[in-house]
Amino acid sequence: MSTLDWLIVFVLNGTVIAYGIYLARGTETSSEWFLGGRALPWWAVGLSMFATNVDNADIVGVTGSTFKEGLHIISVYAVGSVAGAILAAFFVVPKMYRAGFFTNAEYLEARFGPSTRVLSALIQLQYRSSMLGLILWSAHLLLTEMVGLSLVQAWSLIVVLVILAGFYTAYGGLRSVVWTDAAQGIVMMIAALVIFVTIWQAAGGWSGMTAELERTGRSDMTHIGRYAGDTGTTPPWLVVFAWTIIGSGYWTVNHTQTMRLMGSRSLWDMKMAALFGVALSLPIMLVSSSLGIFARALPDFQAIPDAAADTVYPLLANAFLAPGWKGIVVAGVVAAIVSTFDSMGSALSAIFTRDVYARFLVRDREDHHYVLVGRFATVGVLALGFLYLPFIANQENMIKAFTTLISVFATPLLITYLAGVLTPAHRRSGLIGLVVGASYGIIALVDRVAYDMVWLPSWFTSRWTSFAWSILFTGSAIAVTTLLLGGPSQDELAETKDSGWLLRSREELPAIREHPFANRVPPWLNPIPWAVLCFAGAAYVVFIAFW
Q: Is the pLDDT of residue 425 over 80?
């Protein structure tokens, strides 16, 4: 890293972080801290969703995954993300928004009871804090392999970034997070294009890359339909299905994204923001995904073992980027790190504060008390990510660690949300389905991870088939319970047992707006045709262009 590179990194990222600290001023009420006062426009929310979706773990892990296994992972950023965005913004989150909820777990209490709410909150704390661990680990790889820092220097810088992100997030809440994420998203897009163009030229473009892959017998890497899993026996459609469930769960269950949608100034803004977020994510992740297979076409990278695939991105940047350009890419990486830190800090602290602390521990204090708790919780949840580092370090690669963990709790939670919104499931069925699905997930995880004590067949517990089984167990438990007990035992959304501040804060939210226009939504801005276009484009990418 030259002096010019460091100057670019500090100027770009320092400006954005300072902006976040500036925005934090004047944030006092819970509505402002948790939901940005429900005043956020679609384009800012969409940019923030993009910046949160494409974190540094994606940048590093996706490049490593495609270097090892080919392009099948783009399914999650195409069909998976679009399906999830549509489910979240058109079906799931509007119900929560209209009911005045601050978190998606609050909805589950109204639909399935308080036990489901607290279990959902605990699952989200586990699910997203494990992702924090992946982000921390990828940041370590980038700073040591790409920037050339020592272990002590790298981890010291990571801790500083956590503290800075935690500081403006703790004081400014969602408003600071969304606007800083929007700026960081722009930096990330520029950085992605810089490294893509550089590596494209080094590999001789797409034709040069494919010719080299054919020469080395790796031409299947550019075709999703030719990937057959770890053992070579998994049907490609099952892999795409698993990635679709992962993407749908991310956009629907993950409160780092649903929290942004809940902060939209109108229901129209919510839908357009989700579509804008995935529309930005797909081309950028196509660019990032292709770096792995481009690396396979570079002579100096062909000898890198699969076990070291997660080092490919930082090694590419270190080998091919000239001074100045390298600083832009590193600035993009740091922006990705900070944007995800602040997003997870704000979302998980909101879940802890409202769904655990205020609901079950300290029920009725003043508004400023819970804002203060949320601020302290921001720092605490960011620290949780460090606990997952030993597990992640022992996995073959980061993407495998991610897919190993995600089916355990997040998939049953996704099915529970969809059953609550889309079906007449009985009130008691949510908790039963969640427990049954999570129990299968734990059994499958133990079987996958404890290699010396495998006792279940791979078709029942492998990382690709586990998603289908998780859906089957969770959905069957909900369906059987509903058949035995009948439909909803009372109104679909019953009154929660919220009282005091939890109830007052909902009542103080601004009035719901359908759209921000004076009369009606212009036909060309109707979200439904745009949703159809996004899904058609995603399906084309997966099933035609790269199949």
A: yes
